[in-house]
Amino acid sequence: MTEQAWQQGTHLSPKERRAQGKAARKAVPRSSHAHWSPGADRPDPVALVEGQDTNRLQWLVPVRRGRMSVSAFTFYRGAARVMATDLATTPNSGLTVQACGDAHLSNFGFYASPERQLVFDINDFDETLPGPWEWDVKRLAASFMIAGRNRGFSDADNRKITATSVASYRQTMAEMAGTRTLDVWYAHLSAAALRDAFASRGAKKAAKRTKKTATKAKSKDSLQALRKMAEKVDGTYRIKSDHPVLVPLRDIGDATEQDRIRQAARQSFDEYRSTMRRDRQLLLDRFRPVDIAIKVVGVGSVGTRCYILLLEGRDEADPLFLQVKEATKSVLEEHLPASRWRNSGRRVVVGQRLMQSASDVFLGWSGSVQGYEYYWRQLRDWKGSVDVDAAGRKALTRYAAICGWTLARSHARTGDPIAIAAYLGTGTVFDNAITEFSEKYADQNESDYAEFMGAIQDGTLVADTSG
Q: Using CA atoms, how far apart are residues 391 and 396, in angstroms rounded to an integer?
């Protein structure tokens, strides 16, 4: 749906919008989402993953492979391009939202809102693009199936966990369909509300775990980052060297290369500042840059140009760490219309602001600098996440419900919740179909992972597990 068509669609009556959803259901039955199998012409998954490494920092590519090699789940995290290629062959209702593009369960978590409230939301938007809402749902549901298998849970438990994420999405979308537009936009999930919800349901352990996670998240700020990632030399703080995951500018190449990066960073910083609101420009101007380093982050992003910038405010005890992350084309753009934003950094920032209930005050982007585009944000601002590797069956089930709610809320902000809810209906047909799809896709992911590991074991691919 084009932007103009969507603007027109918002003025349809609720009855007309429900009719659209029901018509889509007839054209694309909900049960059809269960049907998927790799076609004979399916691209080689390892080639798809490796194809993303061409323009990355080559000395970090083995680190990316090493992180993806840990388990079938970590492989899945780094294989967004593979799944986007597969999702392009699946049915969709034709109802469009601002899609995350990589809505697996590890891309949700806690962070601080500008009002200094700890909230839970989606927190990764590298692949965001307008697209089918079903693609995000399938990416999320399959991640729970794969994570459950990785934890060694039974098939029945994994189906229940996966179905819970989908049912939560469906039920939340129905709730949003009956909610006033502004209430949908303002809807958010705070850590306190999440803790209270667990406590009210008798889930005392979950409530305590949430409180502990929240307390830990609030300790993750620029002061904590200064203690962990910086050192004082000759009375001045500088970023520590921890090769290959943290490499300060002083350790990168020769003087010519350092100067090139320094100039690029200065140009990018100036352009980034210009994308911010005036009040936030004033805030940023109260800090001065001190040091810069390359920092490895995530799984799928390893090898892209990602820097951290240490800035100092009133004195050395007033630090600010900013993350400068390269933005490339979304993996969805290989299968959907290209972003309206020619700058990929702007695409990421706009998508994040659309989908999140509240966004970082330092969020911004910069134009092409020496051929690369970037977006900026705080490195640590009360960030916290669920430890999936330690989560039990009940905890993962509750987490599935939370992620399902969050994704539906995000989609309701930019799509038509009435039409989507009408498509989903009130029964479990869609839940069951996506759960069946997730089982099939988990099988395929395991096969792809085995192929990836085979290439590492026979020496075709070099992996570095030290980072």
A: 6
Burial class (CB in 10 A: 0-12, 13-18, 19+), 82: buried
**Exposed, middle or buried, 452 (CB in 10 Å: 0-12/13-18/19+)?**
buried
End-to-end CA distance of the chain: 42
CA–CA distance, 228 with 218 (Å, rounded to integer): 15
Cβ atoms of residues 365 and 327 within 8 Å = yes
* Cα dihedral: 11, 14, 19, 20 (round 10): 40
* Interhelix angle 155-177/417-424, nearest 10 degrees: 140
Q: What CA dihedral angle connects 149, 409, 94 and 102, to 10 degrees? A: -40
Which residues are within 8 A (CB) of 68 and not within 5 positions of it... i.e. 6 or more apart? Answer: 49, 74, 75, 77, 78, 79, 299, 300, 452
Output the pLDDT for position 155. 97
CA of 270: how far to CAs of 274, 284, 313, 429, in Å? Answer: 6, 11, 18, 52
Q: Taking a C-beta distance cutoff of 8 angstroms, is the pair 435, 210 a contact?
A: no
177-186: per-residue pLDDT in tens?
A: 999 999 999 9
Q: What is the pTM (predicted TM-score) of this model?
A: 0.93
Q: Up-side HSE of residue 234: CA atoms within 13 Å toward CB? A: 1
Pair 382, 217: CB distance under 8 Å: yes
C-alpha 382/C-alpha 379 separation (Å) is 10
Containing 207, the helix (H) or strand (E) segment is helix 204-218
Place of tokens 């979304």: 330
